[in-house]
Amino acid sequence: MAKVGRKVGYAERRANPLARFLNVLEGKAFAWVLLIPSLSLVSLFIVYPLFRGIRLSLSELELLKGPDAKFIGLENFKTLLADPQVGNAAKNTLIYTGVGLVTQIALGMAAALLLSRESKFIWAARIAVMLPWFMPPVVTAYMWRFMLDAQYGIVTILVSHIGIDIGGQGIWANPDKALYGVLFVELWRSYPFFTLFILAGIQGIPAELRESTAIDGASSFQHFRYVMLPLLKPVLFVSTILEAIKLINSPTLVLLMTEGGPGDSTMVVPLLAFKKAYQAFDFGYASAISVAVLIGISGFAMVYIRSVGFGKEK
């Protein structure tokens, strides 16, 4: 009787137009129909530019020679591998990314541990720490460029009074110091990103764990090393990947503060691609550099995921 009742109910729904429409809404096909707008936007703004860039990287397109692209295969990549300017930019990019990540994680962790303590005015300290991250990159770049100026910079004057000599030419005109000057500004601006992530992770750790480790006689360092760090691993994983992609792929501060100079001492790979495209108008070669950056970021992400073992069940 139950089967007969179900068959009758299904027949009634087939006969009723409204019921048929509701039946369509419950189907998987309609779910895919709802995804069409999103998939269209992804195709328009991500997939098409990606394939367009790969196609340009296999072509010769110099606007000074003409607007037509000529297919040349892998010639741009062969030129890229032999280009000393690309090699220097790749070295600077590795330094900029590596040093930037290590210093930002260390300072962000220290700030998060301090801000995780309970006190009456801790909210004010948390807001103050986040202010550099809220500041627009243009404001940050020009503010620090002036503060570190060789003649009028307040930071230059202060450090000279405590016996630190940064040279008469200052940081920005010194090929050996300019990149580390930009890294210092990047650290000041970006460490709150890690502070925010890590602080959120710390506040998600149950207080009972700290109490239980204290009862077992564990020191604060042992609690941090064996309890907090393993629990913060997912947070550190996500924040490190995001910041690494930003450092590799967005040379905003380098462009605003040094434009890759003096010489090529602060030139990084994305900035080199930008200059090849919009100063030399060599869009084919610039696309090849951009594709190489994409491959490098993808490779870094895969190696990092495998090395930390994220997502593996233990």
Estimated share of beta-strand residues? under 5%
Question: Structural class of the secondary structure composition?
Answer: mainly alpha
Spatial gap, N to C terminus: 50 Å
The sequence of SSEs as H and E is: HHHEEHHHHHHHHHHH
Give a count of the beta strands, DSSP E runs of length 2 or more: 2
Average pLDDT level: 85
Largest sheet: 2 strands, antiparallel
Spans of at least 5 consecutive residues with low confidence: 1-8
The CATH homologous superfamily of the largest domain: MetI-like
Radius of gyration in whole Å, from Cα? 27 Å
The CATH architecture of the largest domain is: Orthogonal Bundle
Main-sheet strand order equals 1-2
Number of domains: 2
The shape is: flat
Please tally the helical runs, counting DSSP H or I stretches of 4 or more residues. 14
CATH topology of the largest domain: MetI-like fold
Can you tell me the CATH class of the largest domain? Answer: Mainly Alpha
Helix content: over 70%
